């Protein structure tokens, strides 16, 4: 069983067996959606366990899997970060 299920707007799009696999999947998603969703705001990461068939799993913050900071987060000086 995969450790994580990757969702986009609530639809299942992929599975990952480890943190590194989830990180790679999100990295690929961000590259593919650089024009419309560079921060992967539409991605949800669902942690699966042996009880997920009953509980549905638990959401994990996607920021945990991002290699670089979010572009839309304001800097400490009040200006948006720009690539």
Low-confidence stretches: none
Largest sheet: 4 strands, antiparallel
**Largest sheet, spatial ordering of strands:** 2-1-3-4
What is the 3D shape? elongated
Q: What percent strand?
A: 15-25%
Count of DSSP H/I helices:
2
Element pattern in H and E: EEHEHE
* Broad structural category: alpha+beta
Q: Considering DSSP H and I runs of 4 or more, what fraction of the residues is helical? A: 10-25%
What does this structure look like?
The protein is an alpha+beta fold and 83 residues long. Helix content is 22%, strand content 23%. It has a four-stranded antiparallel beta sheet with strand order 2-1-3-4, covered by helices on one side. The longest helix has 14 residues. The protein starts with a strand and ends in a 23-residue tail after the last strand.
Key features?
83 residues; alpha+beta; 4-stranded antiparallel sheet; 4 strands; elongated
Provide a brief overview of the structure.
Helices cover 22% and strands 23% of the residues. The protein has 83 residues and is of the alpha+beta class.
